[in-house]
Structure formats: C-alpha cells, structure tokens
Amino acid sequence: MDFSFSEEEELFRKSVREVCEKKIAPHGREMDEEAGIPSEIIKDVGELGLLGIMVSDKYGGQAATFTKAAIAAEEIARADTSMSVAVYYLVEAAWGFLFERYAVEKAKEEILPDVTKGRTFLGIASTEASGGSDIASTSTTMVRKGGRLLVNGAKTYISGVREAAQYGGGFVTVVKTDPASGHKGLSLCYLPAKEFPGVTVSTSRQMGREGISNGFIKITDAGVPEHYLLGEWNEGFYYAMEGFNCARPLVAAACIGAAEKVLETGITHIKQRKVFGTPIGKFEGIQFQLAENYARLESAKMHVYKAAWMLDRFYKEEKFSRGEINKAVALAKLVAPTAAFDIIKDVMVWHGAYGYTKEAGFERALRGVTSYLVGAEGTMNIMKIIIGKELLGKEFSPI
C-alpha cells in the first residue's frame, strides 16, 4: 500500500500550480463578475496540455491517468475557487475521454484535436426540465432519417452553451431512440452548437460559477451526421453512466482544491487575528473546528484519489468490478462537496464582517461548490442511492 504520488505526478502538480497561480488566480473576481473566462486563460490551459487531458496524444491530448486529471482539477480550483475554469476543464476531460472511447474514427479526427487545442468546447447535455439525475426520463428524441440522425427536444442547465455557440464545439447528448424501452432505449450523439441548423442556445444566470456560461439548448429537426452517433444504438444509458463515473472524481477533486485553498487562508487568519489580546486560533471553539475541517478534507482527498486510482486500474488492467467503481466514485462525490461547503462557510465566519465581503472572495467559492450539492454530476441523494445499492444489492434500490 502506497499513499504517495510518484515523482512524475509531483512534478506535474508543481507545474500546474505555478501556471494556475500566475495565469488564473489574478482573474478570479473578474471572471465571476464579468461572466466569462478570458480567452487567454483557455489558451494557457490548452498550451499546458490540460484540455481533454485524458485524450490520447494522437488527437492532441496527454493520455493522462485519472490520477493526473484529478491533480489538475484540484490545482485549477485552488487558483479559481469559483469553479468556473475547473468546470470548463473537467467536463472536457471526462467527456473527451468518453468521446474517444465510443466515437468512430472520423468523428474523433474531426472533433478532438480542436478540443485539446482549446479552439472549441466539448460538453455534456443530459439534463432536461424533468430533471437531471433521472436520465431515463429523457424526452429528447433521435431517429434515423435520410442518412442523418434527426434530433428534437430541449436540454436545460447545460454548462458551456455560450462557449460552444461562439467558439465552436458541441455536446455529448443523451437522446431517446426507443421510447418504449425506458433506460434501455437511450443513445448518445455529438450535437454541434455553433450555427448548426435546428440548434439554438440561450443562457441563464446562475448563483455561482459565473465565469462559464450555463443555459438551454433547443433542438428542432437538427440533422446530425450519422458518424456523430457514439457507440451502439440504444446503449447510451450505460455510456452516460460511465461518463458520470469519469466526471465525478474530477468534480470532487475540484471541490477539495477550492476548500484547501480557503482553509489555508483561514489558518493564516486565525494565527494573526487577535481578540482580547489573544490569537483566535488559541480558542477551542476555533481550533477544534479547524481540526474537524482538516480531518474532513483529508478524508475527502482519500476518497478522491482512491477513486481515481481505481479508475486507472479499471481501464488499464481491468481490475475491480463496475459495482466497486460505482461505489468508490459515489463516495468521492458524496463526501467532497459537502466537506468543501462546510469548510468554506466556517472560514468565512472566522473572518467576521470581512468574510462577508466580495473582496474576501469566500462567497465565490461557497457559490461555486454549492452547484455540486444541488445536482451537477448527480445530487447527494443519488450518490447515497448508488452506495446503498452496492452495499445491499440492486433489489434494494428505490429506482
């Protein structure tokens, strides 16, 4: 049993942190208030080889492990605790990996090189008005017609709609291809978003993560090329679940990155801030809270990197069952966002009135991690259902 990172991984972390602190951190408030990630940041992240990081080098990626991908997610979120750049990064990392696994060669050659160079955006479109976690209730349809895939429907609360529409790119999209078969009647396709006939996007304002857009996709008789089908017809539910398993550890890694940065700021503050002539870090009410938060953060890290380690072996060595992966990934996604939220909230309180100001920056982090509590990449209750199902057996699953 080895809990250390390799020398290569440590060097990778150092290089990513240096670039992120220099190129991303100074723009945190600007991105949140002006609602956009500067193109220079996307360029810098792309030049570092982080966009589509797990895509093979044939298409411009690094063929990175899940462990390295998680390290990058953690470091990016340390630099931008609002999670905006982290969201841009992690959806491309996870769904780029899935795209390469299931797309045909023509589609991979057409789409992935532009994604890894930062020229276009690749996202995931699964959520609909009926809900996000229950993708079996997807109402967006796709049929074969005239040599193309005809798509109709709508997607809601999708990250990156403005970026895809303006700069090019599209979304791995969940569609219903056999309405009578429930979750066994879903497929995946790539849906272009920039000036594609039948596809229109609109944006909405979120509580947080304002640096990356969020919004809606309306799809009316969009004739998607046949080679944009991902994998086999009616197998989309299983591919989507696999994609979420790839994304969730990166989400959790980003949460611990933001929480770690905020907690470090909090430690500095309670060592320096005095009341009644005494640093507040000497008071048990603060010190015990710090110890508890540190313990939760370290626990979350263990879950995150264990899940990443297991995924690396699942794909390369075919170790672990699908159920073991489901449980490990859900544990990471369950523990990290809740721990991050509580840590950021406590540090905000330690700072008193200043903690409540925009200048302090804690509210950006609090708003950012909240998105992963309410539903992005799966709600907390869905994570509990997944864990319960793996512990008790599928006959005990309520869904």
UniProtKB/TrEMBL annotation:
The coenzyme or cofactor needed here is: FAD
Question: What highest taxon heads this organism's lineage?
Answer: Bacteria
Q: Does the keyword Iron-sulfur apply?
A: no
Sequence ranges assigned to domain Acyl-CoA dehydrogenase/oxidase C-terminal in this UniProt record: 234-391
**Pfam families, per this entry?**
Acyl-CoA_dh_1, Acyl-CoA_dh_M, Acyl-CoA_dh_N
UniProt xrefs under InterPro entries: Acyl-CoA_Oxase/DH_mid-dom, Acyl-CoA_Oxase/DH_mid-dom_sf, AcylCo_DH-like_C, AcylCo_DH/oxidase_C, AcylCoA_DH/ox_N, AcylCoA_DH/ox_N_sf, AcylCoA_DH/oxidase_NM_dom_sf
Q: Which UniProt keywords apply?
A: FAD, Flavoprotein, Oxidoreductase
Q: What is its EC number?
A: 1.3.8.7
GO MF term set: flavin adenine dinucleotide binding; medium-chain fatty acyl-CoA dehydrogenase activity
Family matches, as Gene3D superfamilies: Acyl-CoA dehydrogenase/oxidase, N-terminal domain, Butyryl-CoA Dehydrogenase, subunit A, domain 2, Butyryl-CoA Dehydrogenase, subunit A, domain 3
UniProt-recorded name of the protein: Acyl-CoA dehydrogenase
Q: In which organism is this protein found?
A: Candidatus Sulfobium mesophilum
